Amino acid sequence: MGALSHIRVLDLSRVLAGPWCAQNLADLGADVIKVERPGAGDDTRHWGPPFAKDPKGRDTEESAYFICINRNKRSITVDISKQEGQDIIRQLAAESDVVIENYKVGDLAKYGLDYESLAKIKPDLIYCSITGFGQTGPYAHRPGYDFIIQGMGGFMSVTGEAEDVEGASPQKSGVAIADIFTGMYATTAILAAVVHRDQTGEGQYIDMSLLDTQVAVMANVSSAYLTSGEIPRRWGNASPIIVPYQTFPTSDGWMIVGAGNDGQFRHFVTAGGEAHLADNPLYLTNPDRVLRRKQLVPLLEAMTRKKTKGEWIALLEAANVPCGPINNFKEVFENEQVIARKVQIDVPHPTVGSMKLVASPMKLSKTPVEVRMAPPTLGQHTNEVLHERLQLDDASIAQLKERGII
Fold first, then answer.
1. pLDDT tier at 168, thresholds 50, 70, 90
2. Cβ(185)–Cβ(196) under 8 Å?
3. Catalytic one among 97, 114, 179, 212?
4. CA neighbor of 102 nearest in space, from 52, 44, 62
5. Which of 266, 220, 271, 216 is nearest to 244 (CA)?
6. In the annotation, is 393 catalytic?
7. What digits encode the pLDDT tens for the residues 263-306?
8. Residue at which a domain ends, from 333, 359, 380
9. Which helix (H) or strand (E) holds 209?
């Protein structure tokens, strides 16, 4: 039994931030019911290719995007624009501990499914809203997209090749970090609210904003600006305060070297057959190397190109120089540490057969995370949930389907 096996979650969210949060709760044991639009479902069901293939190698309707954020959930389809659909959601909310939604500000109030309305039915309800800009402020009604938030929140101003590199420009992250981090913060906030409810009996409303989150996770970069007043700049893969602490080309790929002190720098260049660089008075100390990075780095790059990535990693690990490869995803999932930690798992699925997933990184000794269900097909559990939670019989469910409510 998971740590949250006593918790029921009604997930009205779609796309990424909300589903990521709900999946975290589901991985920890919560019973999560994902509510989707009849016939269409979560937008991410259609974001592809790639789509998972069935045992005969044919594409299914299960997109890789949807798969990564919806395991351990039960899917039901409900049309909340219709009165009977709204009634179903209200009844399910009355039986739930947590509601998660990421509709535009005010949208659910039109259907009587906002926090104020549902709290009248269940006063101890924990209700989490996730939006681009939060429930207040001049931007509250704007739609929020991760890419735009990365730009507005400062992330892209410090990400990308250094500003003095020809053709350099700001870059977004390779994954939707504003969404992912907001989902993680929402998970933490919900767990705190559950503890508060268990101690006091009080439910509460949680207002999560992608922009708030993006600024917060800039961490030391935000703090550096607030402390100094100096606007942070892009440094590419280099450090503004340590040299060498960056990526380096090898004869067959790239690696990362983090020589954080003078001794490690000496071991690095000695391993590459260029020990004289450590004795050069121009590069003796880290401040010297930072001051003369434009002269030093090309010399180091010429050195690192003489060996393969594997040869360098072996040499530098033996010399206790912090280093690592830049793996493609084939290399990631073939890595012996990734295999040993069982990061990739296989679970049965009704159309795919055996579905490959990335395991949750949360490893608890007493209440371990487990994958109880693969990401659901659209509406896979509608009948089951309506029987179980609302005690509807087959005839009543059939009528709801005929009228397009579910």
1. confident
2. no
3. 179
4. 44
5. 266
6. no
7. 999 999 999 999 999 999 999 999 999 999 999 999 999 999 99
8. 333
9. strand 204-209
**How many distinct structural domains can be found in the chain?**
2
Nearest CA-CA partner of 22 in 344, 384, 373, 321: 373
Q: Which two tokens stand for residue 191?
A: 């767990």
Q: Residue 40 is part of a domain; what is its CATH number?
A: 3.40.50.10540
pLDDT at 164 over 90: no
pLDDT (mean) for 352-381 = 95
Structure tokens at 2: 């998971």
Beta strands in 267-389 (DSSP E): 323-325, 344-349, 353-358
First to last CA, the chain: 31
On whether the pTM is more than 0.85, the answer is yes
- Mode of pairing for the β-strands spanning 59-63 and 51-53: antiparallel
Whether 165 shows a pLDDT value over 90: the answer reads no
Q: Could you give the CA distance from residue 287 to residue 281 in angstroms, rounded to a whole number?
A: 12
For the chain, how big is the Rg over CA atoms in Å? 26
